[in-house]
Amino acid sequence: DTEVTQTPKHLVMGMTNKKSLKCEQHMGHRAMYWYKQKAKKPPELMFVYSYEKLSINESVPSRFSPECPNSSLLNLHLHALQPEDSALYLCASSQDTGWTDTQYFGPGTRLTVL
Amino acid sequence: QKEVEQDPGPLSVPEGAIVSLNCTYSNSAFQYFMWYRQYSRKGPELLMYTYSSGNKEDGRFTAQVDKSSKYISLFIRDSQPSDSATYLCAMRLGGSEKLVFGKGMKLTVNP
Asked: What distance in Å separates the CA atoms of residue A66 and residue A49, rounded to the nearest whole number?
C-alpha cells in the first residue's frame, strides 16, 4: 500500500484566518515532505521532515508553519496567508532520505485564499 | 539554463499511438530519475524510477536513461485515453532529499 492521505481536499480561507492541513501515511516511512504546486507548474518543495525533525526549509515565509507530531503525521499550519498562496498543497513521504529513495504523493489540498 | 528541461507541450495523439516524452538535464551529478503522472486536480503518481543508464520496462511503459547525453525518456506503447494526464520528469542528486522537476508535459490521447 503506497497511500498518503490528506485532509481537507479543499479549503477556502480569508487572509486573517488560521487553518491547518493534515497529512498521514501508514507505510512506515520516516521522511515526509510538503510541496506547493501552482497551476500548470511543477511541485515546489517547501519542507522536509526526516525522523520527525525538520531537515529542509526552502526559505518558506513564516505564515506557513510545519509540524510533525509523529512519524505518521505531518501538519501545515497556515496563518495570515495572501491570495498568491492559493495553490495545491501536496504532501509526500518516502522510506528515508537516502540514496535510492522514492517519494509517494498524496492527492493534495486545494487551497483558496480570499 | 534550468537544471531540468521538459517541453510542456501540449501533445495530442490518437489512441494506440506510441508516445515519447523527454527531459534533458544539465547537472551530471543527478543519479536518480523518476517519471510521475498527474491527472487534473490530483497529486502526482509515481510511474517509473531508475538510477542507471539503459531501459526499464513496466507493462506499456519504458523509461530510458542516457547519462552520457544527460537525456531521459518515457515511452508509452498502445496509448489509451486513460493515459491523458500531465507527465513530470524528476531527478535527484545522490543522498539529497530534493526532487528537481521538469515543467511537465500535458498529454491527451484521443479515442
From this structure: 9
Which amino acid, residue A66?
Answer: P
pLDDT for B71-105, tens place per residue? 999 999 999 999 999 999 999 887 777 889 999 99
- Picking from B90, B95, B101, the nearest residue to A99 by CB comes out as B95
- Burial readout B51-61 (b: 16 or more C-beta within 10 A, e: otherwise): beeeeeeeeeb
The enclosing H or E element of A38 equals none
Flag if A110 and B41 touch (Cβ within 8 Å).
Answer: yes
**Beta strand B61-66 pairing with B54-58:** antiparallel
- A73-82, B37-46, B80-89, B92-101: the lowest-pLDDT one: B92-101
